[in-house]
Amino acid sequence: xxxxxxxxxxxxxxxxxxxxxxxxxxxxxxxxxxxxxxxxxxxxxxxxxxxxxxxxxxxxxxxxxxxxxxxxxxxxxxxxxxxxxxxxxxxxxxxxxxxxxxxxxxxxxxxxxxxxxxxxxxxxxxxxxxxxxxxxxxxxxxxxxxxxxxxxxxxxxxxxxxxxxxxxxxxxxxxxxxxxxxxxxxxxxxxxxxxxxxxxxxxxxxxxxxxxxxxxxxxxxxxxxxxxxxxxxxxxxxxxxxxxxxxxxxxxxxxxxxxxxxxxxxxxxxxxxxxxxxxxxxxxxxxxxxxxxxxxxxxxxxxxxxxxxxxxxxxxxxxxxxxxxxxxxxxxxxxxxxxxxxxxxxxxxxxxxxxxxxxxxxxxxxxxxxxxxxxxxxxxxxxxxxxxx
Length: 389
Description:
Elements: E1 3-12, E2 18-27, E3 30-35, E4 47-51, E5 56-59, E6 61-66, H1 105-111, E7 114-119, E8 127-135, H2 141-144, E9 145-155, H3 158-166, H4 174-200, H5 209-218, E10 224-228, H6 231-243, E11 248-252, H7 260-266, E12 269-272, H8 290-297, E13 301-304, H9 316-325, H10 330-336, H11 339-345, E14 362-366, E15 375-381, E16 384-388
Parallel strand pairs: 1-4, 1-5, 6-7, 9-10, 10-11, 11-12, 12-13
Antiparallel strand pairs: 1-2, 2-3, 5-14, 7-8, 8-9, 14-15, 15-16
Helix pairs in contact: 4-5, 9-10
């Protein structure tokens, strides 16, 4: 495939830079050049050229926390594959084995300029399994995959309590949730010691896939993404992560604005949302669009998420615009769904900004990206035009 030239638009790189009348050159699935003085071939046979005068070009948007492909839209609830509601500790589960590429949310994402997402297990379990990062062009799952596994999903608060209280099993309280999470990591430490002892004796030991998965978390090869809304759950997530020296992120962080200076001191990373959803349970009654702004003002690393299908993936840019209405600078809001989301996921070397060497994931807008009246007119994934209005 030859070069593709996106010519004449205003390029918002995602790093804070704006270039009017710029050209973005795509080749081999990568961005190879960005600038205002790039020579464009005049013969169509030499390259594919898109005239984007009057349009705005941004990095493809990134949602760091969704359940696309497991909680499929239009399917009965009993058909969902996001939660294994049998035991509260299921670290051996993998979204890779369940994600359905024909979920209608994937073309919807492309229509909203969203080119990359992290799909995670749900929050019914204290430890729910391993997520994955995919591009949103539907097709063969292995070709969509950016990183699998991408993280271990864990959950504090009401969800696991509600599920297992109904089953008359632990956990029934927040104390129980935290205790089970700690026990899981201690068991993994003990499993490591047992395996090492067996290896020294050259005596085979039965493998345990769940314990092996948790060892990846203990070894900081796999980050722990902790569902936590209330300030008590947020602090418990930080406490347990520090006890075991884990690489972790706070997922939802609904009341993070209440303890923002402390979160900054702890150098946490937080995924904020789904703020547009209703106050469906007690622990989200204090949700506010002020949260991203307050975290930003205090120097806390954040990104903005939909938690799709809780709120629709295709309107990710609208959610960022609501954060702007609450006082977050527009430049920071755009980063919250591009560069900061990529950093949250640990893949900023590949996506999140329009820079040479990065994946050719690009959204083209008619109107300002953070204006709810605007629309995406073209979306490119890995340099391929995959959506056109």
